[in-house]
UniProtKB/TrEMBL annotation:
PANTHER family: 30S RIBOSOMAL PROTEIN
Gene: hpf
Record's protein name: Ribosome hibernation promoting factor
Keyword annotations of the record: Translation regulation
Description of how the protein assembles with itself and partners: Associates exclusively with 100S ribosomes, which are dimers of 70S ribosomes.
Family recorded in the similarity comment: Belongs to the HPF/YfiA ribosome-associated protein family. Short HPF subfamily.
Keyword match Transcription: no
Organism: Dyella halodurans
Top-level taxon: Bacteria
InterPro entries according to UniProt: HPF/YfiA_ribosome-assoc, RHF-like, RHF/RaiA
Amino acid sequence: MQVQLSGQQIEVTQALRDHVNSRLDRLTRLDDKILSLSIVLSVNKLQQRAEGTVYVSGASLHAEALEADMYVSIDILFDKLVTQLRKHREKICDKHQRAVREERQYG
């Protein structure tokens, strides 16, 4: 999986990189077929923004979080991405199971 971490009007420190990397295992535990992850960290006056896009086969999932603390923004971002990834996986599994049931019924 490719991980791209960039900052707008903020220097991405090693501590921020470590924090993002520590949260990555939550995504990889759900789906090991993630193609890439792109995260952009930015500061706008008092708002710390973290935006992330996860590319999986067949979809791209996007989320963002605005908080007063960058570490909290990163945590909320990963919570949102995990939720979206779970829903995406459920859709795929449900479609597959429905196709198998129809094949058994009509086949």
